[in-house]
């Protein structure tokens, strides 16, 4: 153990001994009290009262009491120093030792002397008990310090030792030896006990030290732990912060990287754009290292990649500047190198790879100079390829001079057809100055008042806008007063995307040329006899008119006119007479057709008249009537009056067609028809038959089939008396029940049949079919029924009609009175006598004869008287006109005339009550029309008959 510890131990031992002694001494005092009390009591009991012992006892008790009190109050509860306490314990020990020694003295030396029955032996015993027991107690309680024991021990044994000396050893030797042995043992025990005590204390101290050490270590440990914890938390927080910082850092790095990437991309785009811009603009950046005499041209390497490629040229060797431009080039360059100009700029030619000279435009600037002598070191610039520009400019100049000097009017229009440029010739042509023309619409400078002018301009504009071009001759009246015939040629100018950007117009003046031509063409185009346009010119004019006015013209009527029976008359009149007749006829036509578009003499006695129809003008019928009237007065030729009649055929544009050739030929066909009907009449071309003819060439073949296959059927349309609405009979009307086309009306196939022998076969079929039907009705009791049959001229002329009729009458055993034949006026025209004979024979069979479609043909009274006609069938077209005040007199005249001649009058196509009433009032006899019934099938006709017949 170290000195420090040794010292501490000593201090600890000392204070511990004192502390413990202060406790044990109390017990020691109490045990002494007990011993003394025992002695006193024993003595008192056995030997009675002793004054001296009593004093000793009380004194002892008092000392013990006082000592106890002081020990308790002063050293138990009060504060004290170890030194004082040590002193106190020592004083108590010595006091008690003295008191015990006094007790021994009293007991052994005094009492045997004063108390009778009490001897020295008893005194010795009692005193030994007193000291012996007290020392045993001392051994137990005063073992902290040997000194305490000793300062008690020695005073205590002194009187006892003294007694031994004083007493005779023979008597008490054993006793004394024994007692001394005991005392010595006690002394030894005391010293051993103290030592043990000391060792224990030592151990305790060590323990205590260890505990303190341990506690201290625990404390230190705890402190360390706490510090460690704090440190750990700190490090954790730091780690978190670090993590956070690293994340932020990472994010920032990413952000920066992205920014950098975008910047990089932008830069790349800009670079690409720049290169592209350079490329598009034909720019080549260059830099010139003046010191090393090297020029670097940044050329684009290829079209796909925009990476630039640099070419380095040796300035010394290569001077590809055009000899004519060298002077100007070097002058400008030197000026700038010397610092006399802000920048170098020059336009010159350089020699390219293809050995051709190319125009370029250079702009450059010195960017660094030698600070000492101010000599230029480096220069940068841009070269622009202006070759195309230069060439274009030159070409433009050329074009401009062409434009200026051209002997044709040239103008340029914008997309709205407004003038943006004109050449001097066009100014001269129109009589307007350039400034006036610019901004005006192409035809704004022309007279636009009349309909046809406006229409023409509109049609040209439409054509230009839709097709992009126009090229034709026009006659134009300008507001400047000029009137010119022009070749007008306009063409659209398109851009690369085919969008119209401009129009270019070239105008040639044809006025003079046309006048010349006109003079010549008159001779070509006009018929010198009549002074009217000839066929060629007529066709040309009509064609022109139709083409140029196709959008505005609504309807044209093309009339073909021909003199009836001209040939014999011409022969009679001889050449000159014939010519005179034609001349006069032309004159009259000219007068009566003053509103016609064209009037032409085609050839011989053929004329053509063209009218533009509108509701404002008279109808074509009225116009034809006017023509006929104008010709009704005789023509005086060579002093003789001659009557002529004409036939006319009419076709209409656009109903019959849009082509001039067709229109002419249709009008001619209609004319032929009029001629074949006897002339002196007007026929309008009937499209339907022709269409059918053209459309279906197989119809004839099919028709033959139809007859064989019994596809033809007869329908019956009732004829009714006006006065009592009773049925008079039927008209037999044929229909073709076509397997695929359905029920075909007769107009669709009869015209074809008429051109072949088929019509006779059909006629025969209808006659037999009708006769059979009449027989059926007669057998049903309808005796007086009259069924009319339609007969065409061909049937009459062929001659087997009578036989067929006879055969039918015979076969079905019916009378001729039940039959009526309907013939048209045209049937009566040719072979008049033959027809008359046949009709008479028909009449002999008591068959009725009706004149069909009366009013549409010649309507000549002579026919009516010449042929044995019983009935007049007034054509539907007249019935239709009922209600028109102008037309009505015609109907009443026909009826009156028929009546006067004793004929039965049948009105066809009665459709309204008004028509029925009107005709009934005029005493027309029989009505036929949809008002009563449409043509009916055999069965329906029978039903109708049953309902409307009064037997
Ligand atoms: P059509 O002889 O003048 O016959 C009268 C025509 O007028 C019939 O036409 C009839 O259906 C029609 N009709 C009658 N009433 C009215 C009416 O109120 N309004 C209208 N819009 N039409 C009416 P369909 O049957 O088409 O016959 C046309 C022509 O064919 C006949 O004219 C006739 O010329 C001819 N036809 C008919 N059947 C025969 C025949 O068997 N032989 C010959 N050769 N010709 C025939
Ligand atoms: Ca008829
Ligand atoms: Ca008729």
UniProtKB/TrEMBL annotation:
It comes from Acinetobacter equi. The chain crosses the membrane at residues 27-49, 55-75, 87-111, 123-142, 147-167. It comes from the Bacteria. NCBIfam families: GGDEF (TIGR00254), sensory_box (TIGR00229). Residues 554-687 form the GGDEF domain. Residues 470-522 form the PAC domain. Residues 395-468 form the PAS domain. This is Histidine kinase. Residues 696-949 form the EAL domain. Keywords: Kinase, Membrane, Transferase, Transmembrane, Transmembrane helix. GO terms for molecular function: kinase activity.
